[in-house]
TrEMBL record, chain A:
InterPro entries: HAMP_dom, HATPase_C_sf, HATPase_dom, His_kinase_dom, HisK_dim/P_sf, TCS_sensor_his_kinase
Transmembrane segments: 12-33, 164-187
SMART domains the record matches: HATPase_c (SM00387)
UniProt-recorded Gene Ontology molecular function terms: phosphorelay sensor kinase activity
Biased composition, class Basic and acidic residues, residue ranges: 102-112
Protein name (Swiss-Prot/TrEMBL): histidine kinase
Organism: Methylopila turkensis
Cell location: Membrane
UniProtKB/TrEMBL annotation, chain B:
The PepSY domain, residue ranges: 41-97
Signal peptide (UniProt feature, chain positions): 1-23
Name recorded for this polypeptide: PepSY domain-containing protein
Keywords (A to Z) from UniProt: Signal
Biological source species: Methylopila turkensis
Keyword Cytoplasm: no
Length: 450, 98
């Protein structure tokens, strides 16, 4: 995956947001829990405060007494964590044993006659902080109220808080992982149309289809429709270009033929000029033919089709065999049906037609057309027993240069075959055949680097 | 969030255990007196007491004076005053409020 992967980026963003939400949610939960724990604890402390309110009494001599004391063992152990204290207005004070050698500071009386228990934090006897409940209770009418304080050391609550954190953190972490995985899956699912689109485009490139098939999600379909429209537009533009090139080539043929005829007519008067006219007319004709072939090849470039080699070879051989002067030739066709050329049948006709016609012109007695390969790769070889070509001539034709300017028509067939081969993703190679003549091999796929 | 609540409950229980028992065996006495029909059930007594003084009941005592069962109920009023209501346990008559 690269840094530009949409899936990775979306998944990471989702994971980040999930983590953020869970951290915030966890903090919120923890605060809520903390508040609930405080409230609940204060409630319990207030029960003890009310119990003490019921037990406070003043004797006939004005001495404050408690009939019973709260029984929790933590009230009895010095600094046991749980404390109570009752203060009378005249300074009398009773304390839980747990306060031992200390006393709690009596908080200031709240304003007004508000008897709701006051919940507050006060310093504890051993340096800690107490969550405390304070109540002012009027025990008997003329006497001023007594103040009752009950407190719990907050360190006793810390254990509960730690426990919650220990449970909450891994729970939320697991939730974050689960949600992130779910989101990743979701993103993967959401991007599936693009994968299907890629497959369809692959099919388009391999020539299985000419438009993008299939029905996509409403969000993707406009893109596919636009692509199809573009493909259609392009195909039509190419078709138009091909037609124009063909028109031009055809349009040039008659004037060129007239030019040639005129050249021949003046041959007795000016042989040098006539030959030059003939050569130039031939060159123009060849260029036109080549442009036409190129246009066809380009038009077929996007969609790669396949054409079975064997029937094409047989048809060309049969056609060439009917031409005058072909009786001397023996065609040997060794083309298995399995070989499929990666272009249209028309292109294969043009390529093999040029190569086989060239062989027919130059061959003396026998021509061999052989092929091997499978659906993905292969080669077709046309070999003759003619005079062949020198190595530098073969190299020049490889570069698209006409090598024999004295014989009309020669060289362009091979040049056209070379152009069409390249357009089809194949490569034309010229060599020496086993009979000493020319051997032309079209192989595919073309090597990536030459 | 079940566990935190469980912890809350545990904390509550721990504090609840801190509340004192009355110590004496007067609950047995009260039970026997109720079975003999000498007193009325406590909830009726408390209802009568609250009808007179509203607030939190902070102390309940059952005494016997001259063959008369008397509930002494201390109630903490919302204003913070502690009132004491004496009720005839059999007739639910309020004997004294102070």
């Amino acid at each position: 995956m690269t840094g530009r992967s949409l899936r990775l980026r979306l998944s990471l963003a989702a994971a980040g947001l999930i983590a953020l939400a869970l951290v915030l949610g966890g903090a919120g939960l923890f605060l809520i829990f903390d508040a609930a724990l405080d409230r609940r604890t204060a409630d319990e402390l207030d029960q003890t405060a009310r119990f003490l309110a019921g037990q406070v009494a003043f004797g006939a001599d004005g001495a404050m007494t408690l009939e019973q004391r709260p029984a929790d063992p933590r009230y009895a152990a010095p600094y046991g964590g749980l404390y109570w204290q009752v203060d009378a207005a005249d300074g009398q004070r009773m304390r839980s044993r747990s306060l031992w050698d200390k006393a709690l500071d009596t908080p200031p009386r709240p304003e007004g006659d508000d008897a709701e228990p006051q919940t507050l934090d006060i310093p504890g006897p051993d340096g800690g902080t107490l969550l405390a409940v304070a109540r002012a209770v009027q025990v008997s009418e003329p006497r001023p109220p007594v103040t009752i304080l009950v407190g719990l050391d907050r360190r006793q609550l810390a254990a509960s808080r730690t426990e919650v954190l220990r449970l909450l953190a891994p729970t939320l972490a697991a939730l974050a992982v689960a949600l992130s995985l779910a989101m990743a899956l979701f993103v993967h699912r959401a991007l599936l149309p693009f994968r299907a689109l890629r497959d369809d485009l692959g099919g388009l490139r391999e020539g299985r289809t000419t438009t993008l098939p299939g029905r996509y999600a409403d969000e993707v379909q406009p893109l596919v429709d636009d692509l199809n429209a573009l493909l259609d537009q392009r195909a039509r533009a190419l078709k138009r270009a091909e037609t124009q090139a063909a028109d031009m080539a055809h349009g040039l043929k008659t004037p060129l033929a007239v030019l040639s005829a005129l050249g021949r007519r003046i041959a007795p008067l000016a042989p040098a000029e006539a030959a030059e006219i003939e050569r130039q007319a031939e060159a123009m004709s060849a260029q036109a033919t080549r442009a036409l072939a190129r246009a066809r090849a380009t038009a077929a470039g996007l969609e790669r089709r396949g054409a079975a080699a064997a029937p094409v070879v047989r048809q060309i051989a049969a056609a060439l065999d009917r031409l005058p002067g072909s009786e001397r030739l023996d065609w040997r066709i060794e083309t298995p049906d399995i070989v499929v050329f990666p272009a249209s049948e028309g292109e294969l006709f043009e390529i093999l037609g040029a190569l086989m016609d060239n062989a027919r012109k130059w061959g003396r007695r026998s021509i061999v057309v052989s092929a091997h390969g499978n659906r993905d790769s292969g080669a077709i070889t046309v070999a003759d027993d003619g005079p062949g070509m020198a190595a530098d001539e073969r190299a020049r034709i490889g570069r698209g240069v006409r090598w024999d300017e004295t014989t009309p028509g020669t060289g362009f067939g091979l040049a056209i075959a070379r152009d069409l081969s390249e357009a089809a993703g194949a490569r034309l190679k010229l060599g020496v055949s086993e009979f000493g003549g020319l051997e032309a091999t079209v192989s595919w796929p073309a090597p990536a680097a030459d | 969030m079940i566990r935190p609540l469980a912890i809350l409950a545990a904390a509550a229980l721990a504090l609840g255990a801190a509340l004192p028992a009355l110590g004496d065996d007067d609950q047995d006495e009260a039970r026997r007196a109720l079975e003999r029909g000498e007193i009325r059930p406590l909830e009726e007594v408390l209802a009568a007491a609250r009808a007179r003084v509203s607030g939190d009941v902070v102390k309940i005592e059952l005494d016997r004076d001259d063959d008369l069962w008397v509930y002494e109920i201390k109630i903490l009023t919302p204003s913070g005053a502690r009132r004491e209501v004496e009720i005839d346990a059999r007739s639910l008559r309020v004997l004294e409020v102070d």
